[in-house]
Amino acid sequence: MTLTVLAVDDSRTMRDMIRMALMPAGFTVHLAEDGIHGIEVLGGINPDDIDAIITDINMPRMDGFGFIDAVREQDDHRATPILVLTTESSQELKMRAREAGATGWIVKPFDPAKLVKALQMVAG
Amino acid sequence: MSEQNDPMAEIRASFFIECEELLEALQDGLQELDDGADDPETINVVFRAVHSIKGGAGAFGLEALVRFAHRYETVLDEVRAGRMTPDSDSMKLFFLAADHVSDLVRACRDEAPIPEATSDELLVRLDALLGDEVEEEEADAADFTPLGFSMSLDLPEIEPELNSFEIRFKPEQEIFATGNEPATLLRNLCGLGTATVRCNTSDLPDLEDLAPEAPYIEWIISLQTEAAEAEVRDIFEFVDGLCVLEITGTKSGDDGDVAPTESIETEVEVEQAIAAPTAIAPVSVPKKPQGTKPASDTEDSGADPESKKAAAPAAKSVVRVDLERIERLVNLVGELVINQAMLSQSLDEAGLSPHSDAMNGLEEFQRLTRDIQDSVMMIRAQPVKSLFQRMSRIVREASAAVEKEVRLVTEGEGTEVDKTVIERLADPLTHMIRNAVDHGLEISEKRLANGKSRAGTVTLMAAHRSGRVIIEVTDDGAGINRERVLEIAVSKGLVPPDVQLTDGEIDNLLFLPGFSTASQVSALSGRGVGMDVVKTSIQSLGGRISISSEAGKGTKFSISLPLTLAVLDGMVVNVAGETLVLPLNVVVETLSLGPDDVQMLRPGAYVVKVRGGFVPLYDLGVMLGYRAQRKTDAGAIVLLISLEDGSRAALIIDGIQDQRQVVIKGLDDSFYRAPGIAAATILGDGQIALILDPADIIAGLGNPRGADIMLSERKIANE
Amino acid sequence: MSDQGQTNDLELLTFRVADQEYSLDIMSVREIRGWTRTTPMPHAPDFMRGVINLRGTVLPVMDLARRLNLPSQETNDRNVIIVVKLQGTLTGLLVDAVSDIVAITEDDLQVPPDISSDPQLSVVRALTVIDDRMIRVLDLRAVVPATSDEAA
């Protein structure tokens, strides 16, 4: 099952890693550099075409929490699965992400195959 | 993950490039904090830089980097959270830690030995800042394991024994706010094996009592699977706490009450089981169609992925290009310029009318060539900022080594310079900065005694000035001790004991090979590198270096460099049958010498009167050894040149050919490049013409060979 | 690169300089060019003839006769420039004329007598006889002055 995913991360390396992980699985990957850029990119994609969103937390301009908030405010994306990328596996962060409206979380560094699977599971 | 295929290697390389950018941001941020910035974004930038380095490092299993970055980040997080206000000592430590991250990044990149001892030492000091919180954070550090993956969706193979689970799943209201879909969860569950799903709708109120967002439905799933319970639980990981979840395992073969008693059965009908309750939502609250999406999505997902390629704005992209490719382009454009000059010359010789189509076309060709050349040069230009940042580290290290307090002030960090120039400036600048800290600045006590501030200041400035790049290293130290310099030069036999030199000439003795002012070897000097090496490297870039100093006030080194290493706007002149090129921007005006214009200062030294002032006059043909001194210079053509430092000179030439852009071809020492010769170029006729460095001609001294010539010429003149 | 013991085959490019016969290991020769006017380098040693344009790069050219302290001849159209490569650097050697390419073995080489005293011979690494003519085999590293290490 291939999906179309928006990945938001300020680290080019992470964006490359995500793209590397998802493209071979046949995913279509849109990339953005921070929350604001993410919203801009999301606005240019037909809501029905986005299956899932991956976002980093620590980002300039608009962080991951702000981004999730902004996405959830859009009626079209009320139910779009959002996975948070985090280096910390602390419970507190997960709960904060969930409060913001995140669907789940992935701890960096991630295994490409498992990222694919995680996305397929939440967006399936 | 472990396989080293090409894309991974590429990302790895890209990671290290990104690290350089992040390190730059880190330095900037720390500097701003040190300068008193207290806005949250500054510390955020600092934090994020370390955080991103850690994140990437984890992806590549660079454990030493992860370990250090993680604990550095922990301390920065305290600052970010406002729980810690860094004092000047902790700021120093932050800088050291940033330098160390930089070292670790490079060690990892080059697969060099990791300086673990420094890591340990700095970590002890960083941890000390945390005080009581150390232990807690330590635990957290252990929690972060590189290359781990906490989402254990895919546990290793287990015995293909069938397990039976009875799962009761009742989502709570909050679940819908997170984008988690019961439908998806159930489908994932079904994916584990054979499932029978029952739907308990007994809680469903009447339509008028139905709260829009409240889930009323409970699912009971009987699952036959090879998966272990943990795997089943993992499916619900994200909704843990957002639902009532009960999983009870029954032994395999114990095929108990699989038989459903109510409602819908069979996995095929799962969609319906899920769709049933959710279908109610749109009725009551049309604007919240939660749950309908995944169902419809499954129908078309994968069926036609092409249709999903939306015309979204692509992420801002920067193309990273192998420098070699740019070099090739630069060289090709250089060839193009030569080719165009040749074509231009042959059309000229063919005697075509200037208004002919061919000549018009040529003009356009010239314009385009020039534009292309400019654009290509732009590719290679980059701000000197990265270079300056490296220097701030040199200042920190150098000042610590000699126990002086030093402040580095940088100006014009955004000045763009050819990338090659920046790279090749690093070593000379490092040396100059070390010199400034070590020899230029006085110790604090002495400064205070002289009424100066306790901390010395080293200023690093870059600017574009009259078509060149100027870089200055200034210190506010004691200035050059000229007596001592002369003494050393004489004692080392660099100049004759009875030589009479001006202040400027004495200062320039510093550039002579084998000169070192350090009366004792300090921690910094004694590296066997002198200012002569600095001068040589600057010259090899087509640049020049000058020095000025004022007793008690300080010393300034000025480096002047061409904007690019590849092209030059030149004036092509004839001297004694040879063709020479002068940088156009130094030529102020052309004069024709009258009989009374030239005055002899002393034998062999002449000046020319230009509008009331006297300017030293040099015969290029004689200076370059092309011909002997002529009886009279009357009637000769003279180029008046002026340098950035205000010095002027008049050069005797035989004729002016042209003004044109020339491609610079470097000459190294194997060519016996004489002082005054900056480089060479290829003319339209294929001949090589030398490009002159007027400042070097005027300065004469400085370069060892130049000094010889000057001194021997004086000797000749005195005979 | 020249002193490889086990394979004896050696190809020499022979040429004339001031009516004497010299040769170079052909492996170090890149190309042979006709004479073109050189641009003199100011204050260079007199054996440096100057620089020429070798397909867009600047090639320093050495007058081999002057380098060997032989009487320098007037240059004419028969003069050629042998372009040699030593440690990555190209240098042109101006000679009177190129004669031949000969194949010999290391056994055919004779150590020149008392190298150190005679400046002319200090750049000759061996002698060989071909058709009764004595041919000097030049040691390129001694002929082309070492460039500074930090170059490039």
UniProtKB/TrEMBL annotation, chain A:
Keyword Acetylation on entry: no
Any one of the GO BP annotations: phosphorelay signal transduction system
Keywords noted in UniProt: Phosphoprotein
Residue numbers bearing the 4-aspartylphosphate modification = D56
Record-linked SUPFAM superfamilies: CheY-like
Keyword check for Acetylation, yes or no.
no
Residue stretches making up the Response regulatory domain: 4-123
Record's protein name: Response regulator
PANTHER family on file: CHEMOTAXIS TWO-COMPONENT RESPONSE REGULATOR, STRESS RESPONSE REGULATOR PROTEIN 1
Query: What top-level branch of life does the organism fall under?
Result: Bacteria
Q: Which InterPro entries match?
A: Bact_response_regulator (IPR050595), CheY-like_superfamily (IPR011006), Sig_transdc_resp-reg_receiver (IPR001789)
PROSITE patterns in UniProt: RESPONSE_REGULATORY
From TrEMBL, chain B:
Q: Which residues form the CheW-like domain?
A: 567-703
Stored SMART domains: CheW (SM00260), H-kinase_dim (SM01231), HATPase_c (SM00387), HPT (SM00073)
Q: Which reactions are catalysed by this chain? A: ATP + protein L-histidine = ADP + protein N-phospho-L-histidine
Gene3D superfamilies, per database record = Histidine kinase CheA-like, homodimeric domain (1.10.287.560), Histidine kinase-like ATPase, C-terminal domain (3.30.565.10), HPT domain (1.20.120.160), SH3 Domains (2.30.30.40)
**Extent of the signal sequence:** none
Phosphohistidine modifications at = H51
UniProt-recorded Gene Ontology molecular function terms:
ATP binding; phosphorelay sensor kinase activity
Please list the GO biological process terms of this entry. Answer: chemotaxis
The record places domain Histidine kinase at: 363-565
What range(s) does the HPt domain occupy? Answer: 4-108
Q: GO terms for CC? A: cytoplasm
Q: Where is this region: Disordered?
A: 279-314
Query: What are the UniProt keywords, alphabetically?
Result: ATP-binding, Chemotaxis, Kinase, Nucleotide-binding, Phosphoprotein, Transferase, Two-component regulatory system
Give the Enzyme Commission number: 2.7.13.3
- Any idea what job this protein has? Involved in the transmission of sensory signals from the chemoreceptors to the flagellar motors. CheA is autophosphorylated; it can transfer its phosphate group to either CheB or CheY.
Q: What is this protein called?
A: Chemotaxis protein CheA
From TrEMBL, chain C:
Database matches in InterPro entries = CheW (IPR039315), CheW-like_dom_sf (IPR036061), CheW-lke_dom (IPR002545)
Q: Name the GO terms of the biological process aspect.
A: chemotaxis; signal transduction
What cellular component GO annotations does this protein have? Answer: cytosol
Its name, as the record gives it, is Purine-binding chemotaxis protein CheW
Give the PANTHER family listed for this entry. Answer: CHEMOTAXIS PROTEIN CHEW (PTHR22617:SF23), CHEMOTAXIS SENSOR HISTIDINE KINASE-RELATED (PTHR22617)
Q: What organism does this protein naturally occur in?
A: Pseudooceanicola sediminis
Q: Which SMART domains match?
A: CheW
Q: Which CDD domains match?
A: CheW
